[in-house]
Amino acid sequence: MYMENKVKLSRVEKNLTQQQLANQVGVTRQTISLIEKGSYNPSLNLCLEICYAVGKTLDEVFWNEKGEN
Q1: Rounded to an integer, what distance in angstroms lies between the CA atom of residue 25 and that of residue 49?
Q2: Cβ atoms of 14 and 54 closer than 8 Å
Q3: pLDDT at res. 25
Q4: Mean pLDDT over each residue of the chain, to the nearest integer
Q5: What local confidence, expressed as pLDDT, does residue 61 receive?
Q6: What is the pTM of this model?
Q7: Cβ(29)–Cβ(43) under 8 Å?
Q8: Distance CA 17, CA 7 (A)
Q9: 42 C-beta neighbours (distance < 10 Å), count
């Protein structure tokens, strides 16, 4: 089961490319792409790094209410 997220929306709001975000958090652009598509579940540490990079909280980027999927 994969997690839905708001990584792409948050990244675009911050005017970052996938490559720029990837460089900031220490992963490949492909990893960011997979996370945005919901095809890859990042570790908690990576989730936090992404949140720091886009200036949002964990619940703003990764939280889904039960039954929201």
Answers
A1: 6
A2: yes
A3: 98
A4: 91
A5: 96
A6: 0.88
A7: no
A8: 11
A9: 20
Give how far Cα 37 sits from Cα of 23, 62, Å.
19, 13
DSSP track, the chain: ------HHHHHHHTT--HHHHHHHHTS-HHHHHHHHHT-S---HHHHHHHHHHHT--HHHHH---TT--
pLDDT score, position 4: 82
Q: Which residues of the chain have pLDDT under 50?
A: none
Please, what are the domains in the chain? 7-56 (1.10.260.40)
CA end-to-end distance (rounded Å), the chain: 11
